[in-house]
Structure formats: C-alpha cells, structure tokens
Design a protein that fits this description.
The protein is α+β, with helices and mostly antiparallel strands. The chain folds into 2 domains: 149 residues, Gcn5-related N-acetyltransferase (GNAT) (Aminopeptidase); 195 residues, Gcn5-related N-acetyltransferase (GNAT) (Aminopeptidase). Helix content is 36%, strand content 28%. It is built from 13 helices and 14 strands. Helix 7 packs across helix 8 and helix 11 packs antiparallel against helix 13. The longest helix has 19 residues.
Length: 357
Amino acid sequence: MSEPPAWQIRKALPGEADSLSKLALRSKAYWGYPDRFMRACQAELTLDKPYIENNPVFVMEIAGHVIGFYALEYVSASETELGYLFVDPESIGKGYGRRLMAHAKQQAGNFGYSKIIIQGDPNAEPFYRAAGGALVGYRKSVSIPNRELPLFQFDLNSIDIQIRRGDEYGNDPCQAIAEMAARLYGRQSALPVSLLRSWYRKNASIFRIAASSDGSMAGYISTLPLGTDRFEQTVKPDFQENSIQADDIDSAFGPDNGGVFLSSIVVAPEYQQRSPASLLLRLALVEDLIQVSGKQGIRISAQAVSQKGQRCMESLGMKICDVTTDGWKIYYGENSGADLRGIQKILQNKLSTRFEI
C-alpha cells in the first residue's frame, strides 16, 4: 500500500486571492446548492489581495497543489472569527478539514486569542461540533435573505485530551503516527509505516494516543516490551531503533524479564503549550507499568537528544547511562512499584497545578 502524499500548511500569498476564491466556491457548491444560491454567495466567498495582506490566511498544500485554506479575522483582543475554512471537494472526507481546524486553533492561541467564533454552513454543523465547538446562537446570512446560520464558539483555554490505546484510536493509527513524526523530525528520521504496522499488529498496546476532542491526534507514546537480550542492546551506543522487529516485542506489556524501551513520545506543536497531552501520555505509561511491575519492579530505557526530551525521560525515573554514536543520550532506569507510584504522584500534581484538573 502506497503512503499518501505529505501535506503542509503555510501562509497564503496575496497573489493567491483569485484561486482561493474559486476554491471556496467549489467547496460551497459541494453541498448541492442551486446556481442562484451560489451566485448570491459569490461576493461573500471572494477574497482579494488586501484581505490576505491584512488577515492571517493559511493554505494547505500537497505537492505544491493547494487543497484547502482558512482565515482568521480580528474581533477583539481576546476573540477572533474564522472567516473562511474550505477544502476542495476532491479532498473532502480525508481529514484535511480537521487538520486545518487544529492549525487554526494553534494560530489563534499563538496570537493571544482565547476564543474563536464561527458562522458555519448548516451542513458543516456536525464537523464543528465534532471539533469541539459549542453552538451559541444563530446569525442572519449577509447573502441569502431570511436565512439563519449556526454560530459556534471555541474556548481555546479548554482543550479536552483523552488517552486511547492503539487499537481504540481507530483501525490503524500508524499512518497518523508516521505523519506526526515526519512533521516534527523530517521524513528521513521518521520510522517507516510498514515497521510501525508490524509492531502494532504484534502488540497494539505499545501505542497510546493522545486524542483531542475533535478526534485528531495531539500526540502519542510508543513503548516496546522486550526480552532480556534485546533490551540490553537498547542501552548500547550503536543501538538503532529501526532494528527492532515485531518478533522482538513481547506479547504482554510487561515482560517477565528484559524491560520496556520507550521508543518515542511526541506531541504536535499546536498542543505542546496549551494542553496536558505530554503529562497525560506519561501518566498512562506509568499507570500501566505499575499494573505489570508488582513488587519486582521494571526496567525502562530510552534515547533523547533535546533538552525537553531529556527532562521527559528524567521525569520517568531514568538517568543518563551512555551516549549513542549519533550523539543521543541513552537513558536507563530500574523502578520498583514504590518508585513508580512516587513518579505517578509527581506527574498528577504537575497536571493538577498546571491545568487545574
């Protein structure tokens, strides 16, 4: 099975005003509105160069082809309105609208807004509800007389994150996991989807997904239970993560011997500052380790290169034991049940203090 093409979101260019206007009209027509209706909406759906120059407008493109866009409009110091959010009809239903919405929330938060309001098409009401929007009223259409449109509000200071196991997130989270890793680290550094899938099919519990209220992936953690010989290799300088095969992974989460290798913990940029995703992922791991470790305790290892990653490993009771040939720090820890419960309490306190949970 071939991988879908990579997408990116970037600032719109003033010269793209005409092509974005046409995309908006095509997307609106997707709902089957008659020609007379579409002609009445044309002015409302038309962007010009000054609009793009004076408002945050972002486009999503694949291989240089724009397949969607959104715009934010100033309302007040704390509130912005989603002026546009459209996806080309041939790309509708593939999750791109959800990704654009997540990006819009991120940018609005970066600009200091605490709320987004949206005047949505009635056909898009399920989409905005699923994305976490609350219906707060109705607004009269500026294009169609006697037509009222639902008005949604997003509270950017309230982000609902739930942790799901790999087999609970969807049919197969591996493609989304690979895409997130590629976004953050580059496609060359991301593990191939085929390898992730082989791990997933052997033991889906190795993946825990941080899912936002709109169903998008806010982050994930992957932890591989390994037998003694394979686990010992994870703390050697020449160890390569992509050398782990499905047969190396224990079918149970906690191996009787060996240990757990923390392959990766990743949180999407838009969720790093304003959501508890990282803390919740670490808590989910620790809670699982408590269940399987018993009095015997459990060994855990990992690699990290950034300071943030190093702090994350230290929060899980690991310390530096060596350095890889590529310059990554190798972390190792032996945690008893009491150690893990202590780590759990610290993480819970951080969670309640920072996010008022």
